[in-house]
Write a structure and sequence with these properties.
Mean pLDDT: 80
Largest sheet: 8 strands, mixed
Distance between the termini: 43 Å
Strand content: 35-45%
Number of strands: 12
Number of helices: 1
Length: 203
Amino acid sequence: YNGRLNGETEPSFEFANPSMFTIDSLYDEHINGTTRNASYYMANLGLLSRIRYPAGGCTTFSYEPNAYSKDIRRDHTTGFYPYLKNDSTNAQTGGLRIKSITNYNSYNVLTDSKRYSYTLENSTLSSGIQLYFPRYHLFYDRNTERGPEAVEFISGNDVNSYGTGNIEYSRVVETSSDSSKIVYEYSNYNEIQDYLATTFKPI
C-alpha cells in the first residue's frame, strides 16, 4: 500500500539481496542503493481518483508522496531504543497523502475545491514524523545453553515493524477555493515520546 513494492529488480520476491544492506560493527543497518525506496507510481495504483454522482457532477482526488522532517531512529546511540531525530530538511517516505479535492457540477463546471498542506507553522518544513522505516536485515548475538549464538534474518519483507503506520502529521492546513482556511493540529510523537523506565514503583 505504501509503494515499497516498487517494481525494482530483485533476485526473488522472497528474499532480499544481502548486498543491498550493510550492518556495521555497531549493528546499525545501512541500505545501499534505491531498491527499497517507495515509488509514487506504485503507491498511486488503485487509489480512489473520482466519484461520479447519479444526479450529475463529480468529485476528484489528487495525491502526493508523504514527506517528513523528523523521524524516529533506533540505533546504537540509544541502545536501539527509539529517539526523535530532527532532519532539518524534507524527505519522502512510503505512502501518499491527499493533495486536493475538487468538485464539479453536472455541467462539468468547477464549483469548489480544497487544497491541503502539511507544513509546520511559518515554515516550509513538513510537519510529518516518520515513525519507522522497514528493516530488512536483522543481526544480533544471543546466549543459549549451547553457548553464544549469532542470529541473522534477511528478507524481502519488513522483518521487524515498530508500528502500524509509517508517518504522522502534527499540522494540516485545508485551504478552500474562496481562500478560507482551517488549521488542524494533532498530538504527535514530538509531544508524547517513548521513554525507558529507569525506576519502578510497586502497585
